[in-house]
Amino acid sequence: MKRLLVTGSGGQIGSELVPYLRGIYGAEKVLATDLREIPGPVSEGGPFALLDVRDGRAFSELIGSFRADAVIHLAGVLSAKGEKQVSLAWDINVNGSVTALEAAREQGSAFFLPSSIAAFGPSTPRVGTPQETIQRPTTIYGVAKVTLELLCDYYHRKFGMDTRGLRFPGLVSHEAPPGGGTTDYAVHIYHEAVERGSYSCFLAAGTFLDMMYMPDALEAVVRLMEADPSRLVHRNAFNISAMSFDPEGIAASIRKEMPSFTMDYDVDPLRQSIAESWPDSLDCTAAREEWGFAPRYDLDAMTKEMLARISAKRSRAV
Asked: pLDDT tens, 34-84?
């Protein structure tokens, strides 16, 4: 990759991926876009443009004028928010992504699209979920992800387009606030631990979900996009994960650093039902073998860094 256009730059992934990419490729070679102005390093650390991803003409012209070699398409509505705004979720997640694919194809750009563990459903094998398996999701977010996984494969076969993608697990970050996802508790819990010493969890005990610390996710995006295409058997929707835990597991990890930390439960039926439809753990063999996926953080390493970073920010704000 040489010149990159990133959509959804103000979201949880984009707000960290844009500076990360600029550090690798150069600030002027990464164009950040979003539907609205974003104060801070995303808009101030390099080129930035307003973009509604459903506007095909503006999208194609922007790719062309920037001479983007690849589009990193992150714009989307997340799972829990999508269940409350179904039409909006479909319009942005599917219609906006189709527009993005077409714009990239018109301009001869490669295309990265994130998928999610939401692409699976209750009938998917829950433990060691295979790379290729039954996918019958029960959320509009998941239905959209399956649609787009298939569509990216189609554009590669039909047009020879260089499409690539990852199935992200829950992503944990100390930088961006959660954006309405079911796995958000794994971010909230660290902030509440530092600020209050306790947390009330909206998922039930025993609810295992795949997770990953954001630095590993950022590295995975670059590693996949830089991978030799001759090695990619699957190209799109690679399973990736670094750890699987339930709320009790993450609470136990926090207590290793903060022994007085306490947690109770106030289960949200919507997010609990969504979580129960997703896998407990993924088989990431294809990602490891085809492009060298190798996460560095386990749960305890992530916990130690999250608590330290959040505590440092809190101290500076006082």
From this structure: 999 898 999 999 999 999 999 999 999 999 999 999 999 999 998 788 899
Block residue for tokens 């690849």:
70
Contact indicator for 32, 6 with CB cutoff of 8 Å:
yes
Residues noted as catalytic: 141
Detail the DSSP E strand segments found in the chain: 4-7, 30-34, 48-50, 70-73, 110-112, 115-116, 163-164, 166-168, 170-172, 198-201, 209-213, 238-239, 243-245, 262-265
Model confidence pLDDT, tens digit, residues 98-139 = 999 999 999 999 999 999 999 999 999 999 999 999 999 999
CB atoms within 10 A of CB 69: 19
* Residue indicated by tokens 């990239």: 104
pTM for the predicted model, two decimal places? 0.93
Whole-angstrom CA distances from 100 to 51, 68, 108, 167, 208 are 11, 13, 12, 19, 33
Provide the residue type at 78 as one letter: L
Report the C-alpha dihedral over residues 5, 10, 14, 15, rounded to 10 degrees: 120
Domains and CATH numbers, the chain: 4-169+212-239 (3.40.50.720), 171-211+243-280+297-317 (3.90.25)
